[in-house]
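User: Need the bound-state model for uridine-5'-diphosphate:
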Amino acid sequence: MATITTPELSVVVPVYNEAAGLLRFYASLMEVLDGLHTTYEIVFVDDGSHDASVKVLHGLQEQTRMIRLVVLTRNFGKEIATTAGIHAARGTAILTLDADGQHPVQRIPDFVAAWRAGARVVVGLRLSNEREGVLKRYGSKVFYGLFNRFAGANLVPGATDFRLIDQSVQQDFVRITERNRITRGLIDWLGYTPVYIPFRAHARIAGRAGYSFAKLIKLAIDSVVSLSISPLYITAYIGAVVLPASTLLGLGMLANALLGDPLHLHATGGAYLMVFTLFLIGILLVSQGIIGLYLSHIHTEAQNRPLYVIDADRSKADIHNA
Ligand code: UDP
Ligand code: MG
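Assistant: Bound-state model below.
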């Protein structure tokens, strides 16, 4: 293997309390990488593990120069850890991979082949796993359905963090500065057309998933907030219905009363109060919605994403991403 300063392939692996399975994972990964006949580096990012993960990684690093190790001060969460690894990677292609053995390393050659054939983003598409809890399986189905509907996004169910990006995509990715981030969502946002590689997830080698149900809910909420501003418009939409409807209803009732109740409504004081209350609620919803509109502008400004991403390969002008 040649120099590791610019390897062809970087493998980025976020690690959180994986000591028990790390050696087995590493052995299986090395077997595949050596079979690829390419230059590579493995960037392990320790995400504040409380177990012996860092010790195990130090031990591995002593054996080979292909390993680079980024140790975060505390647990920042997988998304940030993966981001740190992508930032540190020096390869011309960067593959992200879970350390728990769930992403089958045997498929890595397929990712590399797709990249060599020209794909800039290659995404592992997870086929459903029978052993997975019903809650998680249907939970994710419902989430993707709702998300795509309300966020106007096109997240593909089963698209995972088992993915490969070209160095040019890494450069775009680095320009994204927001803190609350979903790595795969941001890579999707960059807009390159992905090539999908379906795979069946293995069971964890050892240890437990670092994601509790509560963490998954938070992840889902973060995805919506990060990738969509439409929830901010919801009150505006409701207000836009309630306000004119209650206005019309109130005016109709008033006209009816003035004309001597031709509709025979026999409207009581309570009914008028009800309609008037609805009217006031409508005003409140609309004003909240207006705040939502301004907030959405502040939100997108605060995210400070690059305005656009240029597809350098297909552009003819002599320009590059700023
Ligand atoms: N992970 C991490 N930080 C965390 C939680 C998980 O770096 O706070 C790593 C973990 O070590 C593994 C990958 O992210 O390599 C996927 O985590 P996990 O298996 O817990 O999640 P799931 O398989 O449910 O997506
Ligand atoms: Mg896992």
